[in-house]
Amino acid sequence: MADTFLGILAIITGYLIGSFPSAFVITRLATGKDIRTIGTGHTGRGNVGTRNVFVNVGKIPGIIVAIIDVGKGTASVALAHWILNTVTNMDPKALFLFILGAGIAAVIGHIWPIYLRFKGGAGLATTIGVLAFLMLRDVAIAFSFAVIFIFMTKNVILSANLSVILIPFLLWWNREPWYVIIYPILLIIIMFIHYLPNIIAEYRKAGSLKNLLAGLLLRNRAKAR
């Protein structure tokens, strides 16, 4: 019973760590503005995340937010791993599942933070932090492809998302357990649910999927020049 309580506590702690609104805090310190009132279109108006800060506040604040958000994901699972391995005598499989739960909670916390009335960011950087701690080799391989994706799309965020999508395939190729393979898929689904309203709005504006993708690529190539 005590071990289960600590596992649940690790998940709650992961959510609270993930909820820390780094984009809000850094934007307020850098400009005095509220990030929730900044941003339009592909950055998402009011999106409390790295890309909105990077595009609409500044590169340095954006980089700082990205580092903190990745760190939130890593810290959530690392803390859960340390506490549950140190204090409990939990079955290894159950322990690992609680650690995975802490990672999911961190991403949910970033997207729907309790500190900002459940209005947060997209969760990509926090997801990367979680996965980097749990499956560093596969994340490193997946993100080696990001260089190719960036060259093709001129879009860093899109390339990072595509790299995350590769991770389940790498896990399957390496014959990892089924619950390890579906873990990044769950995180991708959570991010997709959050970003779906933006996708629908952009799709309606573009008129078709082809126009949406073409406009996205052209827009980011223009910014890269």
Compact overview of the structure:
This protein has 225 residues and is mainly α. The protein is built from 11 helices and no strands. Helices cover 77% and strands 0% of the residues.
Description:
The chain has 225 residues and is an all-alpha fold. The chain has one domain (2-224). The protein contains eleven helices and no strands. It has helices spanning 2-18, 22-31, 50-56, 59-87, 92-111, 124-134, 136-144, 146-153, 156-173, 178-206, 209-224. Helix 1 runs parallel beside helix 5, helix 3 (50-56) packs antiparallel against helix 4 and helix 8 (146-153) runs antiparallel to helix 9 (156-173). The radius of gyration is 18 Å and the shape is globular.
Write the layout of secondary structure elements.
Elements: H1 2-18, H2 22-31, H3 50-56, H4 59-87, H5 92-111, H6 124-134, H7 136-144, H8 146-153, H9 156-173, H10 178-206, H11 209-224
Helix pairs in contact: 1-4, 1-5, 2-4, 3-4, 4-5, 4-6, 5-6, 5-10, 6-7, 7-9, 8-9, 9-10, 10-11
Characteristics:
225 residues, mainly alpha
Low-confidence segments, ≥5 residues, pLDDT <50? 220-225
Derived from helix and strand composition plus strand pairing, the structural class reads mainly alpha
Count of helix runs: 11
> Level of helix content?
over 70%
